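Quarterly update, task 2.4: 2-acetamido-2-deoxy-beta-D-glucopyranose-bound model.
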Amino acid sequence: MRNVTITALVALALLAGVAMGMPTRSYDSCMAVTQLSSSYNYRLYWNQLNSSSTSISIAMEAQVGGWVGFGVGGEPTMIDIDTQVGMMAGGGVVVDGYSDGPNQPPMDTNNDNTNVAVKYENGILTAEFDRVLNTGQVKDNVWIAGSNSIVAAVNDGTPPEVDSEYSRHDEAVRFPVDFTTTSSCPPPPPPASPPPPSNSPVTTNSPTVSGSASAVPMMIPAVLAAIAAIVVAMA
Ligand SMILES: *[C@@H]1O[C@H](CO)[C@@H](O)[C@H](O)[C@H]1NC(C)=O
């Protein structure tokens, strides 16, 4: 009976996550970066690492129009930070860079980010990617299964048109994150309120309608999983 409860709770948690418009993939850790202004609602997600991990799955998310960024290592003077900057340029990209001072970090020759997914929905920019912890390249830092000194940064300006050109961060903070730990975020703020009701018939093209409709197909597997778990345990 205990297993049923746990499985059903996990399925419901997944379901709740999808319904709240979180990243496309699921992550076992989420950190609300409260060191940045709260209006950005910056959240960093990752899948927990262990001593055998060789890569990591990351999502960075903020209420910004320009870009959402994340860097590993380097100096407070913005030297030698291994930067990942997510933006909608070209349909969505996570730029792999390496800073050499208080300027836009030059792009790496090799972009080592894989499984990249970037979306801008309801005013929230979400950038997801996978990354090998040690690429062996000079213009990358080694990310460790342990405590990393990381930088979270945002730009709330206009979206960059090309991936190589983006303006300076509006805010950046540095703090340690141990990727072998898990943490969880408080529930995100509710989405922007829908337009006031009118007498005209509801159109299927309104942003609120299509936004919630897109979540429904993704919710179905979680519901089925919850039902299946209960049925199996009762058999
Ligand atoms: C260690 O983490 C990797 C992902 O980084 C995962 O695939 C693997 O199952 C984990 N191993 C253990 C023993 O938890």
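Highlight for this quarter: The chain has two domains: 1-21+206-235, 26-187.
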